[in-house]
Amino acid sequence: MTKVAFIGLGIMGMPMAVNLARAGFEVIGHNRSPRPAADLCALGGRLAESAYAAVCEADTVVLMVPDSPDVQTILAGPDGVFSCARQGTLIVDFSSIRPDLSAALAVQARQYGMTMVDAPVSGGEAGAIAGTLSIMVGGTPDAFTRAEPILHAVGSTVVHVGPSGSGQTVKAANQLMVAGHIELLAEALVFLEAYGVDVRAAIRVLGGGLAGSAVLDQKADRMVLREFEPGFRIDLHHKDLGIMTSAARQAGIVTPLGAVVAQLVASARANGDGELDHSALLRGVERLSGRLDGEREQSVPRKED
Fold first, then answer.
1. E runs forming strands in the chain
2. What are phi and psi of 99, to 5 degrees?
3. Which of these is catalytic: 171, 219, 239, 303?
4. What is the CB neighbour count within 10 angstroms for residue 11?
C-alpha cells in the first residue's frame, strides 16, 4: 500500500483524497486551515498536524493548493518537501500554477532525487467527488507511468500532454475556454430572459445543437436559479486567467477575446463576487444591463404579427 501525503484538502482536494483512500492508498492529509475529514478518516485516512509531518511518512506527495507561491513554498520552502521527503519520492501537483514555475520545480525535484509531474485538473467539485476529473499531465514518460495509479484513482480522462510544465499550459488553455463559454452562456441567458422566453426550454434545445457544451449542461440551471455556491471560485479563475494572459504575452500570442473575458472576471471580483462560483459571471452581465438583484427591466414587448 502506497502512503500518500495529500496537501490541500479544500473543495477539490478533500474529495480527491477520499477517492485515493477508496482506491486503497493510505492517505495522510493536511490542510492549512482545519476542516472536517470524516469521510477520509472513515476510509482509513488520517490528518497530520503539519505538511512536514505528512510528507515525512509518505512515498508519494500530492498537492492541491490555490496558487504558484503556495506550491513553491510547500516544495522548496523551509521544511518543504525537497528538504524532508525521501529520495525517490513521487510528487504529483494537481494545483493550477504558472507553467514556467512548474517546469523549474520539476528540475529541482530531480536534483533532490525525486520525480515530479504537473497534473492540473478540470471538472470542478462534481468531477472531484465522482472521480471523473480530466487530468492533463506534464513530465517525463517514466514519471507519467509511475503516477498513473494515483491519477486514475481521481480522474477518468488522464492524458500525458508533454514535458514538465505542459500540463499547466493545457490547463491555462482550458481555463480560457471555460471562462469564455460561461461568459457567453451568461449573456445568452440574460438576452433570453429579456424577451420572456421559456429559458429552460431554450437550454434544452440549445444543448442538442452546436451550442451544446459541458458548461451548458453543468452551469445553466444554476445560473437560471441564481445559485452560485462555489464549485470553482471567481477568485481562482481570475488567478488562472492571469497565468494564461502572462504566458500568452511571453509567447507573443494574441488572445483578444481572452483579454476581454479576463477583464470581465476581474470586474466580477472587484464588485465583490470573488467567493462565488464562476457561473456568477451572469451577475456581471446583469450589472452591466441594469438588471441585477431583482431590479431587472421588464421583458422586451413582442411585436404582434
1. 3-7, 26-30, 46-47, 60-63, 90-93, 115-118, 121-122, 133-138, 155-162
2. -60, -40
3. 171
4. 16
Helix (H/G/I), strand (E/B), else coil: 242:
helix
Q: How far apart are CA 273 and CA 249, in angstroms?
A: 27
What pLDDT, on the 0 to 100 scale, is given for residue 296? 52
Q: What is the dihedral of CA 113, 97, 221, 182, to 10 degrees?
A: -140
pLDDT given for residue 305 in this prediction: 41
Residues 105, 68 contacting (CB under 8 angstroms): no
Give the residue-averaged pLDDT of 158-164: 98
Residue 286: partners with Cβ closer than 8 Å, 6 or more residues away: 190, 292, 293, 296
Q: Tell me, yes or no, if 171 is annotated catalytic.
A: yes
Whole-number pLDDT of residue 81: 96
pLDDT at 294 over 70: no
Cβ atoms within 10 Å of 132's Cβ, excluding its own: 14
Give the span between the Cα atoms of 176 and 191, in whole angstroms: 23
Q: Nine-digit cell at 269?
A: 471580483
* Averaged pLDDT, 234-258: 96
* pTM, rounded to two decimals: 0.91
Whether the per-residue pLDDT at 298 is higher than 90: the answer is no
With contact defined as beta carbons under 8 Å apart, do 8 and 63 qualify?
yes
